[in-house]
Amino acid sequence: MAIAKAERLMNLALCLLGTRRPLSKRELRGSIEAYLEAGSDDSFNRMFERDKDDLRELGLVIETVENIEGEIGYLARRDSNRLPPVTLDAEEAAALGLAAKVWQQARLAGAASGALQKLRAAGLPEDVDPYEAHSALEPRIPAHEASFEPLMLACRDRRAVVFDYRKATAARPEQRHVEPWALECWRGHWYLAGWDRDRGAERVFRLSRITGKVRSRAGRFTADVPDVVTVRETVASWAGETADRSALIRLRTGAGFPLRAKATAVRDLGDGWDELEIPYGHGLDAWLVEFGPDVVVLGPAELRAEVVDRLRAVAKG
Prior knowledge:
alpha+beta; 12 strands
């Protein structure tokens, strides 16, 4: 059974790499003997989807393309699946080992381990153990949201997605059509950066506010994908990391230590309250709401209004 599956995966990979145009499921079924022997359409579809996922897990970049007649086709462009020789020194291998350890308690553990095995095969020094190089360090990034994995795969495969999203100021979620660029983690929260097709602009979505299932959509991206640095700057701005003004808040004594760490000035008001001046940028209102009754916004007025709107939305359920 293992040999038969390996042969089937190899044949599928060769078909996808050898074509100059997208091949439909029908064409692939007619080209691969194992698919011809499938007992029914349902059996073939299940087998094909598993094989396609297995090839992507192995690192093959498979594109999904919709033609003018609405038929879905698949191909693996050679220029997208060709890597230069990999050469790593001990320090670089250690960095990759730390990155892999981030996912050892998550569903990506298998992919991280597989990536290191591929690096071994590509020339990672045999005397370097990337897991043990800095064993005293135990990096962890939690990824509890159900939307994380499908969005990660959509970013990797350049597939548009549809999901329901509830803004902090809205009582009900609304549907969003997004071309996902990248996932970034800020202050313990995961964010998706991408192109919002309905609004025709880049947007950032906090994964904890995505409700229901993330559904894939066929077809190419309509907007250019920026480089990684630009995406990170976008997330930082939307997540409140970029500040160009100052805000004045009242904070309960002994609470809100992350806010205190950001404060540029602190004054004891007495009666269990302090007055803080903190940097004010996009997303600060969402952050302040998380501290509940321990925070009172004194100014500016627009920030106070944004916080009140968010609290009212929460109160409405």
